[in-house]
Amino acid sequence: HLAHLLGLPVPVHAHVPLVVNAHGDRLAKRDGAVTMVDRAAVGQDAAAVRSLLASSLGLCEATEPVTPAELVRRFEPARVPRTPWTLPPHPGGDPDEGEAGIRRREHPRRP
Q: What is the pairing mode between strands 19-20 and 85-86?
C-alpha cells in the first residue's frame, strides 16, 4: 500500500517453507543453525547449496547445477510448497550429528 501511495513499484514476494532438521526442529540463524561455513566444511560450495535449497521448492533436482537466472525463470509462487522442508543429512554424515552431518555449535545471541 505504501509503495503505491509513493508511486513506487509494489514489491513482490513469496513465503518459502520452514526448514527443519531430522527431528522436526526449525533451523534458524539465531538458533545457531547451519551456515555456509558449515556447508563448506562438508564439501559443499555455494552452487551446491543453491541447488539443494532450490530443490526444496521443486525448482530442480538437489544435485542439478542451476544458475540463479534459470531459477528465476522456473519460479512460480503458486507452486511453492506449503509444508516444512527437512534438510537432508550430508551424504556419509553421522545420523546422530546435527543438521546435515554438522555438529551444532553455539552462536552468540544478539541483545
A: parallel
